[in-house]
Amino acid sequence: MARTVKPEEFAAKRGEILDAAQRLVLTKGYEQMSIQDILDYVRISSGAFHHYFDSRRALLDALIERIQQESEKPLLPIIHDPQLNAIEKLQGFFDTLDRLRSARKADVVKLVRVWYNDDNAIVRQKVDDAVLAQRAPLLTKIVRQGIQEGIFTISHPDKAGEVILSLLQGMGNTHARLLLSLEHEANEQRNVEEIVSTHAAYMEAIERVLGAPPNSLHRTDAAAVKVWIEAIRENSDHA
What sequence ranges are listed for the domain HTH tetR-type (predicted)? Predict the structure, then answer.
C-alpha cells in the first residue's frame, strides 16, 4: 500500500532536495553533481528521490523555476505602482536587483566563483533563458508606459525587454570577470575605473535603445565597486 504524504510534508521535503541541489551546483557544478550526491546530502533513498523528481533533468527544471519565482516577487510591486513614471520604474527595477545582490554579497561572490565554470554551462544557460523569459515582459510593460508618457521613443517596443536584458547580462558578465581578476591584478584602481566606465557605457546604451533622456539612469561609482571588492577579498580570506 502506497504511503500517503501530506501536501505540506511533500512541499517541505521537495524544498529540502532543491536546497541541496542548489548548494551542490554552487560547490561542484551541475555537470559533476549526481543524483547520488543529492541522496547523500539529504539522506534519502533513490526511491524517495524519484517520488519528488522523475530525473536529474526534472530537478534542474524545478530549481530554475524556483529561482524565477523568487526573483520575480520583489519586482512586481514596482511594475504595478501607479505612482511611478517609466523612468522611476526602470531605475527601481535595476535598484531592486542591486539590493537583492547586496543583501547576499557573500553568497553572490561564491556563486560568481563557480558560475562561469564549464561544469555550470548548462544550468547557466538555462537560468539566463529563464530570466529572459520572465523579466522581458516586465521590462516591455515599463517601456510601453514610457512611450505613452512621451519619455521613450523606440521603434520596436515588443523587443525592448529582450534587448535591455541582453545588455544587462553582458554587463553582468563583464563586471564578474573584472571583479574576479582583482585577485590576480595588482592595479586595483584601474579595474575599479574600468568597472565604473563599463556600467556607464551599458546604461548609456540602454538609454539610447529607449530614446530616453541622457543620464536618466543611475551610474555606479567607485565607492559602490569597492564594497564588492571587499566582499571578494573577505571570501578569499575564508576560502
Answer: 11-71
Please, are residues 165 and 130 in contact by the beta-carbon 8 Å criterion?
no
- What ranges do the domains of the chain cover? 7-64, 73-238
Q: Which of 29-38, 112-121, 151-160, 161-170 has the lowest mean pLDDT?
A: 112-121
Give the dihedral sign, CA 176/179/185/191.
positive
Phi and psi torsions of 111, nearest 5°: -65, -45
Element holding 98 (H helix, E strand): helix 86-103
Could you read off the pLDDT of 31-82 as tens digits, one per residue? Answer: 888 999 999 999 999 999 999 999 888 998 898 888 878 878 899 999 999 9
